[in-house]
Amino acid sequence: MTSPSSENNPINFTAIKKRGAIDALGVPAFSIFANMTGFSAIARAAGFDISQAMVTTALVWGMPGQVAMASLHMAGASAMVIFTAVALANMRMLLMVVSGMDMTGLRDQKMPFWKKMALMQMLAITSWVHVGQVEDQYTKAELLRYFTAFASVIYIAGIFGTGFGYYLSDYVSDDVLRIILAITPMYILMMVVTARQSLNRYAGLLGGILCPLSYPLIGEWGILLGGIVGGTMVVMIDQRLKARNGSENGEHNG
User: What is the Cα 72 distance to its own chain's centre?
Assistant: First the structure.
């Protein structure tokens, strides 16, 4: 990996953080802001006040979990049921957190555990995808600073978007606000489609095909199944092709 840093070019962490913040202030921050604006319509309909809606965004920080929390609260579910549903909805983030810690070298950083938890709390699919795209431009130490700035900006944008949307619903219909929820998924889809790694593009394409096909059979579980099966199939095919190419190269060399 080629890094901009060397002995003759000392690391400027301040400049890297600034770059991360600037990169986040464009479409990424806007998409998260708009997405949480749409969530506010759901939260308000569920009976949340503005502080409850903003705290939900800050602590859950995942649209499926946030929607599950608001919907179950509106249905009168117990706290244990809500907690379990939110935990299961956000379970999809576990592998992303593990991957994010590996990309940024967070495990090896000498910092309190609570700081590591706080950094991973701010991790979102948007920041994970974007940081993955610039990974080869920085060392792990530099990438951690970049991620910290990038994730902080979109995290703050999401919380402010929640507050903004809560009052915006006084002037715009809830249906319009719910439509805004599609902005972030569309943005992430475009990032996956334009990803440098062909494996990511194929996984996104296959998962996108499987989701609507499985939806009539298993409903909303089709989204989860389509993503898992699509990604797994692409990885398995890639591994088999690599193994075949490796054996063929071995035969030729022999």
Answer: 23
